[in-house]
Amino acid sequence: xxxxxxxxxxxxxxxxINYVSFINYLCYGVTIIGLIVLRWKKPKIFRPIxxxxxxxxxxxxxxxxxxxxxxxxxxxxxxxxxxIILTGVPVFFLGVYWRNKPKCVNRLIESMTCWGQKLxxxxxxxxxxxxxx
Length: 133
What we know:
This protein is mostly helical.
């Protein structure tokens, strides 16, 4: 979010759309790869929708072509898109991977989460809020 705000202040909307479209296509391909891996490693788990593997493999072939073409034609835009994705790595390690955090860090993360939920009008699925629990 911070990287997006900085890009919006410095660049134009067209550039931001290019960054985000590369990120979206990258994430779509990784999702399809995950689908194929799960179908291969865990074939017995329940799937509400099951398609022939030829469809995701065909999609991946086109995806790889488009991604390689994007990397070739606009390497700077793709590089900035990758940097935007990588800005989430420290957030992951701070919020998810680091299990035994000090209480002050937990309180900070909880307050930032609550602030973000209030800003975006997010409602808890249980019907309550964090303060009630």
